[in-house]
Amino acid sequence: MTASPGRPWTRPPTVIAIPTLGSTPPAYNSSKKPKTRRKESKSKKAHRRYDPDGGTCPGIESVVHPNTPQRSEHSTGGDTSVAPSEQLTPIPDTDKAISTSLEREKEVDTSRYNTQVNTREEVQPTAPAPIEIEFSKMSHSQFREIFAWKTSTLPSYTGPRVNRSDNRPVSFPKQFRMAELYASGHERALQDHVYELLPSWKKRNDVISIFYFPGRHFFADDQHVVVMGPATQQSTEHGFKLTSRFERIYGQTRPFFYALGPVKNKQVFYAGTYRCIELADHYPLGFVFSGGNLVLRDLADAIIESQTEGFRLRTRDAMQLLQEKKVMLEFVMFQLVGFQMDVYQILTSEPASLKNAGSTRKRKRGNDSA
User: Fold this and answer.
1) Buried (b) or exposed (e) across 89-127, using 16+ Cβ within 10 A?
2) CA of 126: how far to CAs of 8, 59, 202, 233, in Å?
3) Where is composition skewed (Polar residues) in this entry (predicted)?
4) Distance (Å, rounded) from C-alpha 339 to C-alpha 271?
5) Cα separation of 54 and 125, whole Å?
6) Do 131 and 287 contact (CB within 8 A), yes or no?
7) Is 117 helix (H, G, I), strand (E, B) or coil?
8) In terms of Cα–Cα distance, which of 281, 121, 129, 274 is closest to 209?
9) CA distance 231 to 303
């Protein structure tokens, strides 16, 4: 093509044919085999949830591949074949990956459920129960830690007294049967001996009683003592009723005596004047015996003395009930409030019978030498 006179030559515009809706798409090279879609597995079909008409199932979002051609809403007919450029690309086989991921999700959910179950088991509160005391492993210092909350609130005694480390034992005549101080009725036996040394105590209108619990006391510190014994209780299973001996002495003030030493050579000591303090309100479920042969026999004797109903328990019966944790125990505290030095001197001085016996031996030796 040549330019017309007086006007420069220009390239004519290129016309591009754009197919309209419903028209036949341009032909393509049929020698090149188009890529075909791999047959989907059942699990894949279930995962996609296609509607046969190309829509979505009610209430379920369909999963559409990004290369899937979208049908126009205004399409009325014509050839609906898809050009090679618009064909779906091959989808990799992900059946194994899907099943693996589902298994992992199941494991995660199961572990989460197990963790929740374990947490519930740990959080579940346990039923309240008595406090177990293993006396074979308990020392005076451990009892000090247990009852420190109470001893720290009580005032200390600052008057004259004899320290426990320097305390001398109570003197007894030679013919006195010391075994009576550790058997049944031990409190009465000791009290009768004290009355002999201190007749003024017995002649008073208000007869002075004593505190004496051999084998059942522990020093929380130098001025406080805790004593254990059976609490008030009734057992329908074994048919007995016990009444605490501590209930009638709460708040009372008396001279306190304690025993120390081996079984065959125990000694009794005067500790001073002590006041009884109740602790049952702070331990409503009490305590149970969990071991300790040294106090087992003494606790059994206390149970026998506290029994008020039922067939009379024997010592071996009471010991068995303690070992089976069938008897509830309680603790009371005794606080030092005074110390009578004159009483201490009388109780710890050598008895007159021993002095007379000593002087008699000296006279006999003098007559023999003459």
Assistant:
1) eeeeeeeeeeeeeeeeeeeeeeeeeeeeeeeeeeeeeee
2) 105, 48, 53, 23
3) 21-31, 77-88
4) 8
5) 58
6) yes
7) helix
8) 274
9) 9
Q: Given the structure tokens 């019978």, which residue do they identify? A: 353
Taking the model in full, what pTM does it have?
0.60
User: DSSP per residue over 164-214, as a string?
Assistant: GGGPPBPP--TT--GGGGTSTTHHHHHHHHHHHH-HHHHHSSSPPP-EE-T
Sorted by sequence, the CB contacts under 8 Å of residue 37 that are 6+ apart come out as: 87, 88, 90, 91
Scanning the structure block, which residue is given the tokens 């305390």? 167
Hey, is 350 helix, strand or coil?
Answer: coil
**Does an H or E element contain 360, and which?**
helix 352-369
CA dist 102 and 100 (Å) reads: 5
Q: Mean pLDDT over residues 53-78, rounded?
A: 49
Task: Report how far residue 220's alpha carbon sits from residue 208's, in angstroms, rounded to the nearest whole number.
Answer: 26
Distance CA 295, CA 226 (A): 14
Separation CA 89–CA 102 (nearest Å): 25
Measure the CA–CA gap between 114 and 279, rounded to whole angstroms.
44
Place of tokens 């042969």: 293
Tokens representing 9 are 């030559």
- Contact (CB, 8 A) for 322 and 300: yes
- Percent of the chain, pLDDT > 70? 57
Residues in the chain: 370
Spatial separation of the C-alpha atoms in residues 278 and 255, rounded to whole Å: 18
Instruction: Give the pLDDT of residue 232.
Output: 93
For strands 217-221 and 224-230, give the pairing: antiparallel
Side chain identity at residue 328, one-letter code: M
pLDDT tens digits, residue range 294-332?
788 889 989 999 999 988 899 999 999 999 999 999 999
What end-to-end distance do the CA atoms of the chain give, in Å?
Answer: 179
Look at residues 232, 226, 233, 196 and name the one whose alpha carbon lies nearest to residue 211.
226
Report d(CA 155, CA 104) in Å as an integer.
67
**8-state DSSP, 316:** H
Based on the number of CB atoms within 10 Å of its own CB, is 174 exposed (0-12), middle (13-18) or buried (19 or more)?
Answer: exposed
